[in-house]
Amino acid sequence: MVTEQRALFIIFGGTGDLAKRKLYPALFNLYRKGFLKENFAVIGTARRPWTDEHFQEVVRDAIHAEGALLKDTSRFASHFYYQSHNVNDTEHYTTLRNLAEKLDQKYEIGGNRMFYLAMSPRFFGTIAKHLKSQKIVTAAGYNRVIIEKPFGRDFASAEELNEAIGRYFPEKDVFRIDHYLGKEMVQNILAVRFGNNLFRALWNNRYIDNIQITLSESLGVEERAGYYETAGALRDMVQNHILQIVSLLTMNMPASYSETDIRREKIYALKSLRKYTPEEVEKNFVRAQYKAANGQRGYREEEKIADDSSTETFVAGKLFVDNENFSGVPIYIRTGKRLSQKTSRIDIAFKAMPTNIFAPQRLGQNVLTINIEPEGKIFMQINVKKIGQGFTLKNSHLDFFPTSNGESTFPEAYEKLFADALAGDATNFTHWEEVAHSWKFVDTIRDTWDKQNDVLEEYPCGSMGPQASDKLLERDGCKWFYQGKNN
Ligand SMILES: NC(=O)C1=CN([C@@H]2O[C@H](COP(=O)(O)OP(=O)(O)OC[C@H]3O[C@@H](n4cnc5c(N)ncnc54)[C@H](OP(=O)(O)O)[C@@H]3O)[C@@H](O)[C@H]2O)C=CC1
Ligand SMILES: O=C1O[C@H](COP(=O)(O)O)[C@@H](O)[C@H](O)[C@H]1O
């Protein structure tokens, strides 16, 4: 259901890459669909001295609209205002407050404010403090703050950051973005699990043999060398996106489909992640870096990357969630840059039949795949009879494409998350305790790696990672279901 929302957005980092690539197009889609109409305005802030006109041009360019949509684009962009602002300068906040009040009146917004922190996290504390002390938060409407990742670089820094924000904004007004939670197929995990008795019954350690999560990218580090060198794949993808997916796959059934109940169960699942000793980390986690191959340069040859960089661009691991339903089920995860293809997918492999009445024919394994990207689909491998005389079995696919029933194409994750935040629904944002448990788990791995002096493994660009990643599963008699291109 589309409900029109009134809000003043203040985007810190309004000239940045994220704002241009994701935020403005997402807001435009909400405008086209009627979530935003006349009663909204956007203030973009950053240090460079742009005019409103230039800012509106940047916004129009960011949207890439064509044809009939061009008219909408101009009307939409007319709601955008630019304020040159250094977040460390207290006086600038007075100018910002005056502009915010003026726009609030002009567009009859009623005091609702959405502060989007699309900047380096080192500024979050000071922005939160000034929003309060300079009275940019209102008494009349809501005041919500949307925070981009990375939320800290370990548990200690995340806790510090959380305290800095929590001093000024209560948890209910803090919306920590993990854009994977806005993806249609990630949201489908709960639909499949808790909307089908079939799967509810099977979704446990009695029937599931192992789970595999692959978030592979064909792109390299691109323009984000500075950030990536301090993060690496473990902090960039595992601490947030992968562990969020793990929590959705392994959480107990919530009492209701509500923010409080879902978050409670996710927190419990993340708290149940088994913490490894350093020896167990070495045995169960693999890290590696891409090297030149297939016409693509290696990580250390990328611009602004040190030639002796030891940052991992690939991680594979085996982990466990020791709750009642999942203890004993290995969850294999992997993510990396410059792999053979962009693919995000989850494979859930079920245990073999206890007896095989068709022997000596072999039964194929039942595998449920939730394909997140590039194509959103769900498919299941099941054994069926081959048409004709005799009784021969074959392994076949049951496919479901959410977009093939005349339903529209998927909205972009940022668009869905913006709409949720406007509605005050934080179900698909991460609660502080989720972040905290995820960091505690990741810290044990990072600490072990930081103390090791061994040479980082390498994998060729265009492959699916180092051999050690395959061996991790072979050791347990398994293999990655997704083998890269053409699979
Ligand atoms: N880009 C992406 O795809 C993703 C980004 N993120 C996160 O989003 C955040 C922003 O990323 P991104 O847009 O790529 O970064 P950019 O470097 O492109 O943008 C940073 C922004 O901050 C502004 N800025 C820097 N210093 C100040 C200051 N002292 N006062 C006011 N403004 C300042 C810059 O503008 P100016 O120089 O004019 O001041 C610019 O608008 C980061 O936390 C990043 O990790 C998360 C996921 C994906
Ligand atoms: O958060 C991040 O995610 C992207 C991958 O997101 P996707 O939606 O394209 O799958 C990744 O490239 C980036 O390094 C990371 O910061």
Automatic annotation (TrEMBL):
Residue ranges constituting the Glucose-6-phosphate dehydrogenase NAD-binding domain according to the UniProt record: 10-188
The EC number(s) this enzyme carries: 1.1.1.49
Gene Ontology molecular function terms on file: glucose-6-phosphate dehydrogenase activity; NADP binding
One Pfam family named in its UniProt record: G6PD_C
SUPFAM superfamilies on file: Glyceraldehyde-3-phosphate dehydrogenase-like, C-terminal domain, NAD(P)-binding Rossmann-fold domains
Record: residues binding substrate: 179, 183, 217, 236, 337, 342
Binding site for NADP(+): 13-20, 47, 149
InterPro entries noted in UniProt: G6P_DH, G6P_DH_AS, G6P_DH_C, G6P_DH_NAD-bd, NAD(P)-bd_dom_sf
Catalytically driven reaction(s): D-glucose 6-phosphate + NADP(+) = 6-phospho-D-glucono-1,5-lactone + NADPH + H(+)
UniProt keyword annotation of Lipid metabolism present: no
GO biological process assignments: glucose metabolic process; pentose-phosphate shunt, oxidative branch
Residue ranges constituting the Glucose-6-phosphate dehydrogenase C-terminal domain according to the UniProt record: 190-480
Active site (UniProt): 241
Entries under Gene3D superfamilies matching the protein: Dihydrodipicolinate Reductase, domain 2, NAD(P)-binding Rossmann-like Domain
Pathway: Carbohydrate degradation; pentose phosphate pathway; D-ribulose 5-phosphate from D-glucose 6-phosphate (oxidative stage): step 1/3
Gene Ontology cellular-component terms listed: cytosol
Keywords tagged on the record: Carbohydrate metabolism, Glucose metabolism, NADP, Oxidoreductase
Keyword presence, Oxidoreductase: yes
Family of this protein: Belongs to the glucose-6-phosphate dehydrogenase family.
Role played: Catalyzes the oxidation of glucose 6-phosphate to 6-phosphogluconolactone.
Protein name: Glucose-6-phosphate 1-dehydrogenase
The species this protein was found in: Liquorilactobacillus oeni DSM 19972
Top-level taxonomy: Bacteria, Bacillati, Bacillota, Bacilli, Lactobacillales
